[in-house]
Amino acid sequence: MAYLIKNISQLITCRNNFNHPKYGKEQSDIGLIENGNVFVDKRKIEFVGNTAALRKFLKNYEKKNFKVIDGKNKTVLPGFIDSHTHFVFSGSRAVEYEMRIKGHTYEEIAKAGGGILSTVNSVRKTSKKALLNISESRLSNFVKNGTTTIEGKSGYGLDTKNEIKMLEVLNDLNNKNTFGLDILPTFLGAHSIPQEMSKRDYIELVCYEMVPLIAKKKLAKFIDVFCERGYFNAKESQQVLSIGAKFGLIPKMHTDQFNSVGGINTAINVNAISVDHLEEIEFTDIKNLQGKNIIATLLPGVSYFLDITYQPARVLIENNIPVALATDFNPGSCMTENMQMIMSLASLKLKMSAEEIINAVTINAAHALFLQDKLGSIEPGKQADLLIFDFDSYKDLLYHFGINQLQTVIKKGKIIYNS
Ligand code: NIG
Ligand code: FE
User: Fold this and answer.
1) 148 and 62 share one domain
2) Which atom of ligand 1 approaches the CA of 231 most closely?
3) Phi, psi of 106 (to 5 degrees)
4) 255 half-sphere exposure, CB direction, 13 A CA radius
5) Which 3 state secondary structure label does DSSP give 419?
6) Are 183 and 328 within one domain?
7) Interval 100-126 mean pLDDT
8) Are residues 110 and 66 in the same domain?
9) Which ligand is nearest the CA of 231, by number?
């Protein structure tokens, strides 16, 4: 089916004139077209431009039969890309949440046997089919808040069988899910250390059994590690990530969340695509990241949910580090699927501008998943993943908070949600 979204008050294309993620001043360039038009045919964007350009396009376009959607008083954006989540899990950690409200920290709860390991216990007991159903049912909460592409991690199995089970769920969902979302799988075997094994033995298992098997079965695009005191140090992280890279998995890192333990140096050494969290990143490490093309993926929902330090977005942007934003949706440190909530936090708490935020959840997030040629901006040839908001200025996206102003979500050219 072909259709034209016509006379859109503000069309935010996020077009990228560079082949790198946007950084520094570029991070504010959103490619705004007033009274813009988008022509979609099947799954793809065919045309983007103002009314004069549209006339020319239609004159030469062979198809004369298409639907028209009125864009007056609307703002259109690329679908949001949530480049860091742990949405495949079972069980609830609401009890831990209450403990934290009473004053216990995330680290204390983890030390007492809660935390990641409590979700591991639950996931190990859940069948693959049940895990798939629970995870798929979560997708609607992402979609109705504007997310059209999701990265998802393993890391709650911590043994070969259950890590593979989680990755198979992610792959099965990518092949088929209710909304046709693109789902990108990340292997996070090095998320924590299972109780039944020493850390040294577990690292061997991850490196010499899991990684080769996962690569052979083509179950993951990325490899990730939790580089943190009490989890994996910089050297151990480097071992895991460089073996993953040898097998064709692209390195990502959880680093500098509670402590700065040398993770940024590791990320540079293994040529990671992104460094995620960064609540405690040091200024010298920000300087070291300059010119490396590594994306800083900030997760302000974690700072909110755990009541910890927020990420230094301004310092990163002013030092020319490309910034992306993601939910980190997971049962322990950020229980929200809502990218609009994350954007509001980025505005108020990270002091990012509306323009910087919009690029951070679209084109830069696409770069963080190595999808920049297909997704992340509204440009001819790209997949038609579009959001229609019920306001005539994108500034309202951040100004008017706590409600959902999203009217329509389009994925691969198809309307998958209408408010
Ligand atoms: O990104 N930091 C490590 N991993 C997750 C939390 C996982 C959990 O608590 O279950 C995170 O915050
Ligand atoms: Fe995470």
Assistant:
1) no
2) 3
3) -55, -45
4) 32
5) coil
6) yes
7) 94
8) no
9) 1
Per-residue pLDDT band at 393 (split at 50, 70, 90): very high
Best mutation site among 83, 84, 86, 256 for ligand 1, i.e. most ligand atoms within 8 A of its Cβ? 86
Least confident of 104-108, 177-181, 298-302, 330-334: 104-108
Q: Which CATH number characterizes residue 414's domain? A: 2.30.40.10
pTM here is 0.98
Residue ranges making up the domain that contains 21: 3-79+377-418
Percent of the chain having pLDDT more than 70? 100
With a 6 A CB cut-off, is 301 part of the ligand 1 pocket? no
Which one-letter amino acid corresponds to residue 178?
T
Contact between 357 and 340 under an 8 Å Cβ cutoff? The reply is no
List the CATH number of the domain containing 265: 3.20.20.140
Residues 192 and 151 in one domain: yes
Q: CA 214, CA 209: separation in Å to the nearest integer?
A: 9
Atom of ligand 1 nearest to the CA of 84: 1
Residues 192, 94 within the same domain: yes
Number of domains in the chain: 2
| Residue 63: per-residue pLDDT | 78
Question: The tokens of 59 are what?
Answer: 């004159």
Average pLDDT, the chain: 97
pLDDT of residue 375: 98
Q: Which residue, among 164, 169, 14, has the nearest Cα to 79 in the 3D structure?
A: 14
pLDDT in tens, 132-189: 999 999 999 999 999 999 999 999 999 999 999 999 999 999 999 999 999 999 999 9
Statement to judge: residues 289 and 403 lie in one domain: no
